[in-house]
């Protein structure tokens, strides 16, 4: 039996090159989902590991260990799917949209859209759901007010991804700290140092931009039409504030994410049955398949038809395949070899943080998927951050800054393609205005070079 050995740098990058080729063919040639490309890349990684003397049992252990670390996050994804569907069906999300529209005026529309989408994303925990619901409505309303659509899309994407990063309900915000072993609330608190400055700058940016592109004389007919449809479709009640209020309260008291989310599902289900008068069958179907309705308005149908546990299956399967690929790469030592090859050029904390950021962006470009852009750098740079005596939440912050936030700016990335599909605006057009998405990585890099909020490794809690 051959002995295991650490692969060389040249051997180690073979699976990375292979997965880049497979993903390129899948996206640009066959217009297919990235799942099979990732699976084939993982297969190449297995073959390379076998040639280096690793047994199938060892490789299988690497796969299962990697997936095991993310099981809580995968469970949360399923619960998030149920929350999205039931909170829309029960009227929780519609009433938030209805009330928020009262504050939209032309000159202040862009900063209001940024703030509105940020709040919805925090409540729902999903940048995609926010863009596909509140974002779609903002596009329709903003166009009616005469605001350039690429600017609206930039505000929507910025707000959606800002709120997603601060929400304990977010799948990526749960997955990222799980990859490197950081507690969820520590991860979110540490991100505040970079996301809040970017958000304040973004508000000022859109405030100035809004006054420069509107004259403030547009009507609110589109807003009134959407509000009218919401009022006709749902029964509004003060009780609808209870589910998000309960979840937010539990989050503020640092209750575990899964019980907090389950409470949100239960209360949303109760609201659907009692306030909206749904049957138990409709409630159970909505939890699994999501909510769907035809109002006669394409915009409103896009806003309301969302969610369900089954809606998360694609993301979960993709995450499992990507985790399996990372597990093989990690167990076989190939990730270690790649990192050591890169680390020859890293001599400072700033360079280390910037290299981690660059890795996430590059993987986003070549893998076309934000989950892979978070998972692989998380596994690659965990050891280098430990050697620099840096707490792993510095790494999880960098992973979010590059892996998640830059994803919608890349046209062929899954996030970029999703934004194009729901907003009908190309990432190339809205990227200059999606200020938070590209400003956060810059702030993270600056903090690395100037040692700002870079927590030492031995510190369990704190800043």
TrEMBL record:
Highest taxon, organism lineage: Bacteria
Main location: membrane
Record's bilayer topology term: Multi-pass membrane protein
Listed transmembrane segments: 9-30, 36-54, 74-97, 103-123, 192-213, 233-253, 260-279, 312-330, 351-376, 430-450
Subcellular locations according to the entry: Cell membrane
Similarity comment: family membership: Belongs to the NhaC Na(+)/H(+) (TC 2.A.35) antiporter family.
Protein name per Swiss-Prot or TrEMBL: Na+/H+ antiporter NhaC
Record organism: Halalkalibacter kiskunsagensis
The gene coding this protein: nhaC
């Amino acid at each position: 039996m051959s002995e295991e050995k650490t692969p060389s740098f040249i051997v180690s990058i073979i699976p990375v090159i292979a997965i880049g080729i497979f993903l390129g063919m899948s996206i640009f040639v066959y217009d297919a989902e990235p799942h099979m490309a990732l699976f084939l890349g993982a297969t190449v990684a297995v073959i390379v590991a076998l040639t280096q003397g690793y047994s199938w049992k060892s490789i299988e252990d690497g796969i299962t260990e990697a997936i095991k670390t993310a099981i809580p996050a995968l469970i949360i994804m399923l619960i998030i799917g149920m929350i999205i569907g039931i909170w829309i069906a029960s009227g929780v999300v519609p009433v938030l949209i209805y009330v928020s529209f009262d504050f939209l005026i032309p000159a202040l529309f862009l900063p209001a859209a940024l703030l509105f989408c940020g709040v919805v994303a925090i409540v729902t925990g999903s940048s995609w759901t926010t863009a596909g619901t509140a974002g779609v409505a903002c596009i329709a309303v903003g166009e009616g007010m005469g605001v350039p659509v690429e600017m609206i899309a930039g505000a929507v994407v910025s707000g959606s991804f800002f709120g997603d990063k601060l929400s304990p309900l977010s799948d990526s915000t749960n997955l990222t700290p799980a990859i490197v072993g950081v507690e969820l609330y520590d991860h979110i608190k540490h991100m505040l140092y970079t996301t809040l400055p970017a958000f304040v700058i973004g508000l000022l940016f859109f405030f100035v931009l809004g006054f420069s592109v509107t004259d403030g004389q547009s009507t609110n007919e589109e807003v009134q039409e959407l509000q009218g449809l919401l009022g006709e479709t749902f029964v509004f009640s003060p009780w609808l504030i209870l589910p998000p209020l309960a979840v937010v309260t539990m989050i503020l008291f640092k209750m575990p994410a899964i019980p907090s989310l389950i409470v949100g599902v239960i209360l949303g289900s109760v609201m659907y049955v009692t306030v909206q008068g749904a049957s138990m069958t409709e409630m159970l179907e909505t939890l699994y398949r999501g909510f769907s309705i035809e109002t006669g308005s394409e915009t409103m149908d896009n806003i309301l038809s969302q969610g369900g546990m089954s809606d998360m299956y694609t993301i979960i399967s993709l995450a499992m395949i990507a985790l399996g690929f990372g597990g093989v790469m990690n167990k076989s030592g190939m990730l270690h070899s790649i990192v050591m090859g890169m680390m020859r050029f890293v001599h400072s904390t700033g360079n280390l943080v910037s290299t981690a950021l660059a890795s996430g962006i590059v993987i986003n470009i070549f893998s076309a998927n934000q989950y892979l852009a978070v998972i692989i750098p998380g596994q690659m740079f965990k050891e280098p951050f430990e050697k620099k005596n840096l707490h792993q939440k510095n790494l999880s912050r960098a992973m979010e800054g590059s892996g998640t936030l830059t994803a919608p700016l890349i046209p062929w990335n899954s996030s970029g393609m999703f934004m194009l599909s729901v907003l009908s605006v190309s990432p190339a057009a809205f990227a200059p205005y999606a200020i938070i998405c590209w400003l956060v990585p810059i702030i993270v890099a600056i903090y690395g070079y100037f040692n700002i909020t870079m927590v030492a490794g031995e510190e369990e809690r704190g800043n």
